[in-house]
Specification:
With 405 residues, the chain is of the alpha/beta class. Helix content is 40%, strand content 14%.
Length: 405
């Protein structure tokens, strides 16, 4: 009687290639630099997270909600309290009338919101216009979805919108523009003229706009955030993204929200369904309390951060850095050439962390195309004043030691 011979099992690791884009993508610079900061006991002014907690009433509301027996799956698009608060927030600050039941999607952070909005509108082969320097997830996400990034570069020190280049980037294959205002890492706040120019291109080419507005309440020196969605003809074309992490200094909560027209909301919701499905219900209820806080909270948030920006910016300028204007966000960009530094920004940030024990982020991390300027570094000022002052003292001592070598 013959006996069947089973093929030998292959117990080695699979040899077939994995996803090429992810395999070629390095660990995010924020993780790399934060790990280096921890290794050297450095003050971390690289990654944009505060070293202080959010509002006590928001945290208490989330804590209480954790114990009220509503810990099962919340509605896909978000708990009613938060959707209503997002709609009220849009009306109060920008005059946008929003239906909380048909025009809001709550997401697990703004990065998921960005992905969901891209998924909602682009098909493989569609082009997406992006403005450099940019948040480092934009390009990989567009590519993972089969889209084609079309990069348009803003140049320091003014970060003016290059209108001819932007207009040329829009083609018959353009499906959307994705941009950030106030802008990370530049601190640029897009002007009414900037926004009108973008709106005209979006309408002329019949495209969508994905508006990353997570720093909407963090503007300085009288600059005000204007959502593109408020411009004529743009309500039906815009997906507007907000972040509880940035507005309430609760970056670890990862609660974001998308405001969009009812014609776009179903696809954004379906994308969210296939990414995370939902977001922790108690955190959503805490954020709902936050969005309904009085105007004084939001005004003080901006004023407090402006004071921190001024402290760090003036100190860096005194030490010899070229300090660029920051009109909004958590960040300030500096030119390291006046210090006499001859290597690139990556080497500077590594040495600054190892020797001065202060961490910054090299601005080349925010570029996807070649030829990026390699002499700018970004510092985060969303820290306590005492920590910022200590960072300046450490940098000063380091510079003096280097000068004496």
């Amino acid at each position: 009687m013959s006996q069947a011979v089973l093929p030998a099992q292959n117990t080695s690791r699979p040899g077939r290639p994995q996803n090429e884009l992810l395999s070629a993508t390095g660990t995010t610079i924020f993780t790399v630099m934060s790990a280096l900061a921890n290794q050297h006991g450095a003050i971390n002014l690289g990654q944009g997270f505060p070293d202080y907690d959010g509002p006590e009433d928001v945290i208490e509301a989330a804590a209480a909600a954790l114990k009220d027996g509503r810990n099962q799956y919340p509605p896909l698009t978000g708990v009613p309290e938060l959707r209503s608060a997002v709609a009220a927030h849009n009306k109060r600050f920008y005059g946008i009338d929003i239906d909380p039941n048909a025009e809001v999607v709550v997401t697990s952070g703004a990065t998921e919101a960005i992905t969901a909005c891209l998924m909602a509108v682009i098909n493989p082969g569609d082009e997406v216009v992006l403005l450099e320097p940019l948040y480092d997830t934009y390009v990989p996400t567009v590519k993972l979805l089969g889209g084609i990034p079309k990069l348009v570069r803003l140049s320091p020190p003014g970060w003016d919108l290059p209108r001819a280049e932007l207009a040329a980037a829009f083609t018959a294959r353009t499906k959307a523009i994705l941009f950030n205002t106030p802008m990370n890492p530049t601190g640029k706040v897009f002007t009414p003229d900037d926004l009108a120019f973008i709106a005209e291109l979006v309408q002329r080419h019949d495209t969508y706009a994905i508006c990353d507005e997570v720093y909407e309440h963090l503007t300085f020196d009288g600059w005000k955030h204007i959502p593109l969605m408020t411009l004529p003809g743009m309500r039906e074309r815009c997906m507007r993204i907000g972040s509880a992490g940035k507005t309430f200094n609760l970056t670890g909560w990862k609660v974001g929200y998308v405001t969009c027209d009812r014609s776009l909301q179903p696809n954004v919701a379906k994308a969210h369904q296939n990414l995370t499905f939902t977001t922790a219900p108690n955190l959503q209820r805490g954020v709902a309390v936050g969005l309904l806080k009085d105007d004084a909270y939001f005004a003080n948030l901006s004023a407090s951060l402006q004071a921190k920006r001024d402290l760090l910016g003036a100190g860096l300028a005194r030490l010899g850095f070229g300090v660029l204007e920051s009109r909004g966000s958590y960040f300030i960009t500096t030119d390291i050439r006046p210090l006499g530094w001859m290597e690139d920004d990556v080497a500077f940030c590594r040495v600054l962390t190892e020797e001065a024990r202060v961490t910054a982020i090299p601005n080349t991390a925010f570029y996807a195309a070649s030829g990026a300027p390699a002499h700018y570094v970004r510092f985060a000022f969303c820290k306590n004043e005492a920590l910022l002052a200590e960072a300046l003292l450490r940098i000063e001592a380091w510079l003096q030691a280097r000068a004496g070598r």
